[in-house]
Amino acid sequence: MIVAEWKPIPELLASLKGHKNILLVGCATCVAECAAGGEREVLTLAPVLKMGLKEQGQDVNIITKTLERQCEPEFVEELAEIAPQVDAIMSLSCGIGMQLVAERFIDLPLYPGVNTTSLAIREQPGLWTARCAACGDCMLGETFGLCPVARCAKSLMNGPCGGTRKDGKCEVDPDTECIWRLIVERAEARGRLEDLAKVRPAKDWSNSGHGGPKRMLREDLRS
Amino acid sequence: MAAAKPDPNFQPEIVVLYCRQALDAEERPPEGARQALGLGVRLVLLPCSSKVEAYQMLKIVEQGADGVLLLACPEKACRFLTGSLKAERRVQRARQLLGLVNMGPERVALRRVSGLSLKDILALAGQMASEVKALGPNPMKGDNLQ
């Protein structure tokens, strides 16, 4: 899922300064799963913003709405009836959904309520950890299903580095596993340790974010 | 919110959300508005304290209640095993958020109780009222969230 987290409350309050009628819009998909922008979080943040702004002398009216998906125009259209009633929108979706809402309601200022941070799984209740970096050249087949791009602090293609702790954790974060240690362990368990010694061509980064904005085109699906 | 001037006539309004399982077996579950000890009390019966989410407690404060008191069972005595633990975490979350906007985390509280009577509930509401009285009236009184 796409993972996001609330921006600091003071930053949110500052961004809404001067507005009177605000639409707080959530997304019931990824950001709901990571407890940042689903209906529950929208309903939590709305009174917090209202009280915070009141404390600063600003009375506001907050309308709440959670869309099934903020990254699909059909769902964003549900906001068309509400938009004329507000003078600002705050979105709790990932940056993708936010931009679609901003594009649809071009006359209204849109403020991000969250920072989009990663592509992650819910590893435990209340803990999300990154699994994918959308690098554009997946190498999971060579690394036994463990991604060193997203899960190695240095995104090393050949690890582990010399910084692995004695307990197998990453030198950068004592709570994070050294992913290359896990890759080696999995290779050993499958009796394929020698696969890691093979010389592989350099990873192709041209399909990652370095080559400018990504476009994916499927002629057979175009109307 | 900045400390209000003490008002001798200020009668806090307390919303008490209480777990059905924490009630004395002989007690008939009370609900609705009551007046007690110079304060207004609204009683809300819950099948379990975990039925309340942080956003609901925040909304009650945002709509003008001076305090929200959640009465939950002792941790080991929760009929649904982890219900009162969830309730405690949600209260912590609500208090944290209230603190971030200077509304006073004290406006939301949890007490672990058992064998409650109506008299006990009103007494606990009275204690809660005395704790939030120093904060003054909730500045949100009269506002409503759409």
Would you summarize the structure shown here?
The complex is a heterodimer of chains A (223) and B (146). Chain A is α/β, with parallel strands linked by helices.
Describe this structure in words.
The complex is a heterodimer of chains A (223) and B (146). Chain A is of the alpha/beta class. Chain A has two domains: 2-117, Rossmann fold (3-Layer(aba) Sandwich), CATH 3.40.50; 135-201, no CATH class. Chain A is built from seven helices and seven strands. Chain A has helices spanning 9-15, 30-33, 39-55, 73-76, 95-104, 148-151, 179-189; strands spanning 2-6, 21-27, 61-67, 88-91, 110-112, 114-124, 127-132. In chain A, the strands form two sheets. Chain A has a four-stranded parallel β-sheet, with helices on both faces. The model of chain A has no long low-confidence stretch (mean pLDDT 96). Chain B is α/β, with parallel strands linked by helices and 146 residues long. Chain B has one domain (15-133). Chain B has three helices and five strands. In chain B, a hairpin with a 2-residue loop joins strand 2 (32-36) and strand 3. Chain B starts with 12 loop residues before the first strand and ends in a 13-residue tail after the last helix. The mean pLDDT of chain B is 89. At the A-B interface, helix 1, helix 3 and strand 3 of A face helix 1 and helix 2 of B.
Task: List the topology elements.
The complex is a heterodimer of chains A (223) and B (146).
Chain A: E1 2-6, H1 9-15, E2 21-27, H2 30-33, H3 39-55, E3 61-67, H4 73-76, E4 88-91, H5 95-104, E5 110-112, E6 114-124, E7 127-132, H6 148-151, H7 179-189
Parallel strand pairs in A: 2-3, 2-4, 4-5
Antiparallel strand pairs in A: 1-6, 6-7
Chain B: E1 13-19, E2 32-36, E3 39-46, H1 54-62, E4 67-72, H2 83-100, E5 108-112, H3 118-133
